[in-house]
Amino acid sequence: MKKVHIVLLILVAAAIAVLVSFLKTTTTYDTVATAKAKPGKFVHLMAKWDKDEPLEYDAIKNPNYLAFTAIDSLGQKINVVYHNPKPENFELSERLVMKGKYTGDVFECQSIQTKCPSKYKDEDPSRHVPQEDRKTTYNNTPPSVTTGKQ
Amino acid sequence: MNYIGEDLLPGQVGHFFVIVSLVASLAASFAYFKATSVLLPEDRKPWLRLARGAFIIETAAVFFIFAALLHILYHHLFEYKYAWQHSSRSLELKYILSAFWEGQEGSTLLWTIWHCVLGLVVIKKDKEWEAPVMMIVSFAQFFLATMILGVYIFDVKIGSNPFILLRESGVLDNAPVMHVGFDVANPVRPDYMTLIKDGNDLNPLLQNYWMTIHPPVLFLGYASTLFPFAYAMAGLWTGKTKEWVHKALPWALFSVAIFGLGIMMGAKWAYESLNFAGYWAWDPVENASLVPWLMLVAGVHTLLVFKHTGFSLRATFLFFGLEFLFVLYATFLTKSGVLGESSVHAFADIGMNGQLFLFLLIFVWLMPFVAATTKRQRAAIAMAAAALSIGTYFLAEVIPGFPLYVILAGIVTFILLMNKQVPAVKKEESASSREFWMFIGALVLFLSSLIIIFQTSLPVFNKLYKLNTAPGENSEFAYNQIQVLVAIIIGVLTAIAQYFRYKSTPGNLFLKRIALPTFISALVATFILVVIKINYDKEGLGFLINIWVALVAGVYAVVANLLYLFTSLKGNMKNGGGSIAHFGFGLVLVGILLSSGKKEVLSHNTSGISIDFGKGSKEISGENLTLVKGVPMTMGPYKVTYEGDSAHPKKALTYFKIHFRSPSDSFTLYPNAFINYKGNEGLMANPSARHYWDHDVFAYVSALPDPTKNKDTAQFAVSSKKVGDTIYYSRGFIILEKLVGKDNLPLQNFDKTDTGYTASLRVQSINGPSYQSDLLMIKGKGQLLFQSQDTVMAQSLVLQLNDVRNGTAQIGVKESSSVMEYVTLKAYKFPYINLFWGGVIITVLGTLISMRRRQLLNRAR
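^ inputs. structure came back:
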């Protein structure tokens, strides 16, 4: 066996070992119910901001405290606490990917990724329709409906 | 129906040339294929002439497509969906270009146009390899042309047409106002264009000059990766498995330089204008382009080994083959929408998954097809590829992982056939030879790239095997902890490899030559570790030690290559491209380690509620700080004051004036933000930075008061006070200094009997400054006629005078946050970041110098 082959073997073994240990650190995507089912476990919670519930953020009191309610596609709700200001596009986003743990009765969030319909997809064309035209006739359909096929 | 106000010509011209380019690239590919396979030179000539003609037509067509789309954007023809979706009337010209490549179709066009330009260079400069190389290039062009075709065949969508009309794109389908009789079941109204006043606009985050220049350079890089691949395939196709390397080398170096530059321009953009506070986040989109780049670098090194010693030819074929496959895989990842959950900036799915995958699959199986030596093998492979493509369509959902196996089978077949055709050297490399260590280095780079792409591909594995795996708790660290080890090995190899000779080096000669660089590096590294210090303890001591070792390795690479340039190469820059590039690469390593290891958050919140993240967590509770207008706050060594804001003259952009003052320094930053842009509630902030030679200070606005959301719920607290009395509030006290009453007011609308009262108050805050406040109240016949409110902004106080009786004033005090003007800021310090940027530039320049040298050497051959 050549020296190169020995080195190759060692490196490949190391690479496999590294990947196996990487796979052990992976987590899961969860809904509210499944996230609640595993308290203390780090998960990726997929839900959106429930605009009907109050949102608490007062930059004067504490700029690093955001509390709101998230609702997932199954209609389950959860209280979320995030120790940062609102992430960019928070209001626009259709979906939030929240990384964190369910502890006690809140979801302690470490980071939030916002997913926006408008960022790379189409937006509602009525937005560019002059105001007087839209008030009587136009029902505001959610952008996702209009995006469909391109 | 005739629609009013549409200009259909540019779209028709554009789409016509899409079809021309599709046909011409296929014709060019076939003609070049014939030119490579006919035996007699006189038979070759007509095929070559045809092929060249077809490729030139293809190039012209692509330029016409490009021009047509640009025309549509430039003239704001919103009847075309692309213009409506990506631009608006208010966009400056440079952002019209940005809008051009914001969409998938435009970015594909950018890629295509660079293929054409580079292809013309091959036709002009390399008659020897033109036919087989351009056969591959034209074939790739054919696939890119299908991506902007936009036709349906049996419900299967082929490509996405950039010239589709808005009314035909489905965007208007659910908008009743756009339809006859306000009913979506009816056709679109003929005068609908009168309702489309403006486009959707370019995403404000992309309205940045980097968006104008980064994509063209990146796509030039992407396009250039095709050429080392095409040369390698041409070598296998023609059976000239050794001769191609000389011609491929400058191309590969060009690709390393430009592709690397393009990626790093993206990093610079992220660093300067986005606010994830860094230049690299291991986002799948970033990784997907880094991986083929690493493979290219590995390939360049094994190619050099082969040129000098005859070893490593098979590895070179493999690396140059996979390099391009991973470019296609990157395209698949970023354009198929598969990254939905895991990336912040991948494109959304536009229904081209299947086509993108087919593109990848065909090129995977093109490799064994080219590597095969007999007609029977080729026929078998072509049939297998066709069967597997169709099989994938039906079996992908049935057999988990089937598409992956199809890809892997193609690669394995390629390796087997290539090994059969390409001879290997039986002799073993000496451990004291340069080629041995270069090969190890290339291997480490290659494996590191495979590890990165494996980690990046989690969402793909989820799709393939119907899994639900998400990245780990600390997804960036998952990459860093592995790549720091790679950095150690690569750093050391970069330092020492040049001090070995090809074939073998006498032991004492190597030691003699490496002694000085080793000694100087030890001194420099010790200085950095002891004086500058890296104490990055977030991930534990083990990782910190790895950082220290990697830093030593990086310094070693810097010093050893610099010395090599001046001692062994006697400062000859023209021949020193490699050493210059390696010197730059060493700086990149050192820059990464120092800037990331010593990054500081300046805006630590010390006043807010501190949050316990639980034991063992080193998460810092508050990285954002609220600045009330005019009140200095402490951030690290700075006193920071929010002084005010101003608006952009044309755009809905607000600039915030933030003044930093330390004992030795004083400067103002102007971070900006789009607030509620185009009716979209929310904040889109861009940072502002102050650059020094050894560090950057960097701030962005992370929150602003929202007047509509923060309803003023605070109440006035009323107290009766005489002159000289004190009222306390949460942050200080207020003294009533003077109280004056006056009749016969010299004011209109007031009666002679009305009395005006003024109260002079002094507001004394705990932390020093005091403020004067004068309140006015007018009373007539026992009725309150006028009352002024005074706001002491810096103390968030609202004061009013309610009543005066017998020398006693009723004073109302309200503490309210809604009156305050404030910004919440996040501020960072990035030390030694310029080592990183400087290193990147030097690496690119060194690689280009090297490329030039190889070109000149080829000319002399």
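Residues 41-74 of chain B form the longest helix (34 residues). Residues 607-620 of chain B have pLDDT under 50 and may be disordered.
thumbs up if we can close this ticket
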